[in-house]
Structure prediction request, 270 residues.
Amino acid sequence: MADALLPDGVRIAYDAVGPADATPVVLIHGHPFDRTMWAPQLADLAPDFRVIAPDLRGYGGSTVVPGTTPFDVFARDVEALLDRLGVQRFVLGGLSMGGQIAMECVRLFGDRVTALVLADTSPVAETEEGRAWRRDLAERLLREGMKPHADEVLHKMVAPHSAPAVQDHVHRMMCATDPEGAAAALRGRAERPDYRALLARRPTPTLLVVGAEDTYTPVAEATALHATLPNATLRVLDAAAHLPNLERPAEFNAALRGFLAAVTDPASAR
Prediction:
């Protein structure tokens, strides 16, 4: 693990593995997790790619900033970190909220994104009901801490039949998240815009991945997004819910590697 101090004083923790001169792949975690959710992907891709997985502000080893964290702030943190690391162009991936932050990165500095990986995420703006729910949940996390919520949603995050070690990892990540950081992200997420038009007019190669048992972002939603994108591939992973990269890592990694092979040449990037 390393960390970088950004211009506004926020410290971002991150993992960076693989050859420094290989094609960069940046992976953004979801809520309420941290960069360790990408451990199977870092291990698999490290021989051939430069893989960078940051902790978003408010999560993991990064600085916790109370209040509200809008998506553009998360995206500018990613941009600032990559500037510090000397990474100009890169493949960008994100899961759930991380996928929405990846979409915000495309909005703000999409010319640097050579390909996009969106897993179990939605480009649709939040509804009024959803805004109220996220704001209420933010207050609940501050009152109760993370564990009661983690207990409730564990088997929506990962399928009940997933490996016990995976369930334990996901539960640990949720419980370890600082409630202030989680609440700030929830408030920001409540105000997210609609990214469908943005994505539909960009020819960026895109891989969509979704767990067949995901109830947060169902297969139907991924299928609808796939139909609107000019250069997209859709992979549905069986026996997985909202975190297929952890529940079905071999299948997720195979889909990711296949996509990367089609859009990059790791050997020529060195």
In short: The chain has a mean pLDDT of 96. The two ends are 23 Å apart (CA to CA).
